[in-house]
Model the fold of this input.
Amino acid sequence: MEQFIMNNCKIANELRKYRDLTGCVNRVSLSDDPENYADYVITQELSYLDMVTANAVYSLWRSGEGKNGFRAETIGQIMAGDMDRRLRPEKQDEVEARLQRLAKTELYILADHDQQAKQEAYEGPFLPITWESGKSRLRFHFRDEGQMPLYQYAEDRGQLIRLSVSLLRDDEKQGQTKLNNNDRTLLLRHYLLQELEIVRYPANRVDRRELRLLKRDEAGNEYGLLWTLGLTAEEKNQTAEVKRAQQTMEQLMDNWRKSGYVTEEEYQPLPPEKGYGLLLLGCDKPEKKRNKKDKS
Done:
């Protein structure tokens, strides 16, 4: 596989970052026009790791390499960008359970007010897959004519990010530091890559992004990046966890700098008083044309 595909539609980003989305109809605004929106219903809460897993499954499906079936280990390898990686049995158990849960999750998107969607509704299992018992592990198969509603919707809206699989692994030949590909590293890697692509996108009005590891709302509830990724620790261990995450983020950015994917001008570490994390800067964007009516 050469490409990893990320779903970057607004519904996907809500599913990654928010909780309490089940048992109700959720609405996403798609522009400044109040009549441009989509509604959706999801039957199970999803985590950021669930969404990374779904991206890996979609990438496999799009590559055409999963036609004869696949195992959980294959999905773990795709997520890590390393098809030679071997997953421990307990990790394979986790991925199998995650795939089964996603296959049992139903998604319905009503897009009749979406000005870019190509059909009124997108619906079905989050992942259209089945499974059977193998010699030692479950073997998964894509359903015939099965569509992934969230990905079909994003494809119609042109909101899929395509990345080289090589960005998901570290290359010591390029002078990169080989990082431990635990859940922390994997989640931060995927999150940073998506945010970098968003900031860099020429048509995006956002040219900088603060990624705070720790952030609280007015009520004191935590909703920073550690919480979004499911990496929160007990209060007494939070300082140690945030420092480990900060170190991992900076190591990832340094590795990508060594490969030429980013430059030093595209990111800055955030200080402790801002909750740690990174500031991403869209340095590669072309200068926007000035409106002739703007005399300032």
